[in-house]
Automatic annotation (TrEMBL):
InterPro entries, A to Z: AAA+_ATPase (IPR003593), ABC_transporter-like_ATP-bd (IPR003439), ABC_transporter-like_CS (IPR017871), ABC_transporter_ATP-binding (IPR050763), P-loop_NTPase (IPR027417)
Protein name according to UniProt: ABC transporter
Taxonomic path: Bacteria, Pseudomonadati, Pseudomonadota, Gammaproteobacteria, Alteromonadales
Domain of life: Bacteria
Boundaries of every ABC transporter domain copy: 14-243
Keywords recorded for this protein, A-Z: ATP-binding, Nucleotide-binding, Transport
Pfam families in alphabetical order: ABC_tran (PF00005)
Molecular function per GO: ATP binding; ATP hydrolysis activity
Organism: Paraglaciecola psychrophila 170
Length: 325
């Protein structure tokens, strides 16, 4: 790889610096948001309704202007070099808007032309086949299901061969089976070199396909983290012991462990945080000590299970914590 290509690969494809958005009413939709998005990654932006996700996407795509701050796409400023940046971006909006009386083929072909691209049936055919739309190419848009219409929106966004794809709630209103099918499509697009930024209300969607997770609440970017690191740093683990005999109460010399005893007295649960690497590494010795102390107290168990908090639980807690501050 040449020095120039290496530099391009290492530099972020999108660089967002200190973006603020204040409407005429005085409402601040975004507060000093900064974020670098890497080439070829899938990043999921999570947040409740009204958090600022769609506003941020609109500013990056040049659809809306920020009150302050700047966004660069592939090294170009989105406001000064709008045509250069917009041509690098494909956007799939939440709304299922389309020309009801146009065919799938004509809809996608027309979208390509809007970006000044010359007609290329080979490209359109390739996109429609990759999205399992080829057999629908001659169908009127009005005859398609909601899931198929959403695929056409993705096809339209890809028609001008962008390097970046924004998916705003890509599987909203889509059944579980089709949603998983869409995840495969998104992963295939990433494998072809497309950088993907998606917003979603489905936590399992982010957990399944994203490389990094960003959490937005009340216009602020609370956190951006690698998915696996986020779960390890901010999650909790719970060890549950199935006791051989019912226990009436937890012995006083075990209170330091803050154990939970089930109502029937047959389960002991020990929950600990994995918030920091140092505390995480120290836990195994604590667990071994706990088991020794249970044995010393004559408490025996048949089985032991370990569970870890999900991304959804972490997200809910992050939002709660941000609203307290």
């Amino acid at each position: 790889m040449s020095p120039t290509n290496l530099s391009q690969a290492m530099s972020p494809i999108i660089s967002i610096k200190n973006i603020n958005k204040v409407y005429d009413s005085g409402f601040q939709a975004l507060k000093n948001v900064s974020l670098d998005i890497h080439r070829g990654e899938i990043i999921a932006l999570l947040g409740p309704n009204g958090a600022g996700k769609t506003t941020l996407i609109s500013i990056i795509c040049g659809i809306a202007n920020s009150s302050s701050g700047n966004v660069c796409v592939d090294g170009f400023d989105t406001q000064k070099d709008y045509r250069k940046t917009r041509g690098r971006i494909g956007l799939v909006p939440q709304e299922l808007t389309s020309d009801a009386f146009s065919t799938v083929w004509n809809t996608v072909t027309f979208s390509r032309g809007l970006f000044g691209k010359s007609s290329n049936p080979i490209i359109i055919e390739k996109i429609l086949k990759e999205l399992s739309l080829w057999d629908k190419k001659d169908n009127m848009m009005m005859t398609l299901s909601g899931g198929m219409k959403r695929r056409v929106l993705i096809a339209k966004a890809l028609s001008h061969e962008p390097e970046i794809l924004f998916l705003d709630e890509p599987t909203a209103g889509v059944d579980v089976e089709l949603r998983k099918d869409m995840w495969k499509v998104i992963n295939n697009l990433r494998e072809s070199g497309v950088t993907i930024i998606l917003t979603t209300h489905y936590i399992e969607e982010a957990e399944e396909i994203a490389d990094r997770i960003g959490v937005i609440n009340n216009g602020e970017l609370i956190l951006v983290e690698d998915k696996a690191t986020l779960i390890q740093k901010l999650g909790k683990k719970c060890i549950t012991l199935q006791l051989q005999e019912s226990l009436e109460h937890i012995p006083s010399n075990l209170q330091q462990y803050q154990l939970d005893l089930s109502k029937d007295g047959l389960q002991l649960s020990y929950t600990f945080s994995t918030r920091s690497e140092s505390s995480y590494k120290s836990e195994p010795s604590s667990i071994a000590t706990l088991i020794d102390e249970l044995d010393n107290n004559g408490i025996n168990f048949n089985d032991i299970n370990t569970t870890q908090s999900s991304l959804e639980e972490i997200f809910v807690q992050l939002v709660k914590d941000s609203e307290k501050n």
